[in-house]
Design brief:
- The structure is a single chain.
- The protein is α/β, with parallel strands linked by helices.
- The protein folds into three domains: about 110 residues, Cobalt-precorrin-4 Transmethylase, domain 1, CATH 3.40.1010.10; about 140 residues, Tetrapyrrole methylase, C-terminal domain (Methyltransferase, Cobalt-precorrin-4 Transmethylase, Domain 2); about 80 residues, Up-down Bundle (Substrate Binding Domain Of Dnak, Chain:A, Domain 2).
- It is built from 14 helices and 14 strands.
Length: about 350
């Protein structure tokens, strides 16, 4: 028969699509996996809407009972109701793979998700990099989250930071807790962030600003998430001002330069300064004036390459600067050039 993964959508039972509702009503057995996100609904509300009994799967039960569920789907129509979009979590993709391996037919009914709804901030979906999840402090430090954010920033990309939750314990991380945790592991307090709460609901809240300012706000009931913007298009800047009430001064004074770009600019400027100010003393040996001039022309070409590759955002730029610095250092060690870095 069939195993259906049925998306419930982002907010509550009213987000379920007509296709998803039809598929759920046609199932012989229905399960619900609700621990991967916070929905503003209940099992009773879903049962009433669909008109069929639903078995709630506790945390971890889907992984442990996957073989049994797939076996059941071999002879009946089995549906699993999942918050958000059903394929946002790798657990559910694994379920599809296991079913395919057992020869069980599968159906996927997609739904609204934070991964698309986050664009309500005005940030372009195409410019989001790797998504990271901020864990509760007792689960360990947020170093990996910080590395993920820094990696995206180095490429000019936005970062969606999902916040940890435990539905069974009614425990949800807030925007404030997430920002404070990130500051503890090294994010700057003036970093531009966007705090988000309850997207898809009438009480949705979106606020952008410097990290410490956003952390001081009360975002209310969960679920919350956080966005750390990368390079901004002028339309995205306008959206953050209008949709996320971001101060124009925060955007104007924003210092966002990837570390690689900062190093490249620093070293190119240093080489240019030395090249203009250095004094060259023609030696008697081992180089002739023409050979010295040839080396200096190599320096100029390497610096031109560095600026070209920087514009292309290629790490080769830093290598080109290093070659230029190497030649200049060699001339200094030979007593041919006199300068200070």
């Amino acid at each position: 028969m069939t195993l259906s993964l049925i998306s419930l959508g982002l907010a509550d039972e009213r987000d379920i699509s007509i296709r998803a509702l039809d598929d759920a009503r046609g199932c012989d057995t229905l399960y619900a996996e609700l621990y991967t996100m916070k929905l503003a609904t209940t099992l009773a509300a879903l049962t009433e809407l669909i008109g069929k009994p639903i078995t709630l799967l506790p945390r971890g039960d889907l992984e442990e009972r996957s073989a049994k569920i797939i076996e059941e789907a071999g002879g009946r129509k089995v549906g699993v109701l999942i918050g958000g979009d059903c394929l946002s979590a790798t657990t559910h993709i694994s379920l599809l793979l296991e079913a395919a391996e057992k020869g069980v037919e599968t159906r996927v009914i997609h739904g609204s998700s934070i991964f698309s709804a986050v664009t309500e901030t005005g940030l372009s979906l195409y410019k989001f990099g790797r998504t990271v999840t901020m864990p509760f402090p007792e689960k360990g430090p947020a170093d990996a989250v910080l590395r993920g954010i820094q990696g995206n920033l180095a490429e000019g990309l936005h970062t969606l930071v999902l916040l940890d939750l435990d539905n069974e314990q009614d425990k949800y991380m807030s925007v404030t807790q997430a920002i404070r945790g990130l500051i503890e592991v090294g994010i700057r307090s003036d970093t531009l962030v966007v705090g988000v709460a309850r997207l898809g609901q009438s009480s949705a809240m979106i606020k952008a600003g410097q990290a410490t300012d956003v952390a001081s706000l009360d975002f209310g009931e969960p679920p919350h998430c956080l966005v750390v913007p990368g390079q901004l298009h002028f339309l995205e800047e306008d959206a953050l001002k209008r949709l996320a009430r971001c101060s124009p001064e925060v955007l104007k004074n924003r210092d966002l330069k990837p570390e690689l770009d900062r190093l490249i600019d620093k070293y190119i400027a240093g080489c240019r300064r030395v090249r203009e100010a250095m004094k060259v003393t023609p030696p008697t040996a081992p180089l002739t004036p023409d050979q010295i001039q040839g080396l200096l022309e190599h320096v100029d070409r390497y610096l031109a390459d560095a600026e070209y590759y920087r514009a292309e955002r290629k790490p080769t730029s830093l290598t080109s600067v290093a070659y230029a610095e190497g030649i200049l250092d060699s001339l200094k060690l030979l007593g041919i050039a006199d300068f200070q870095w």
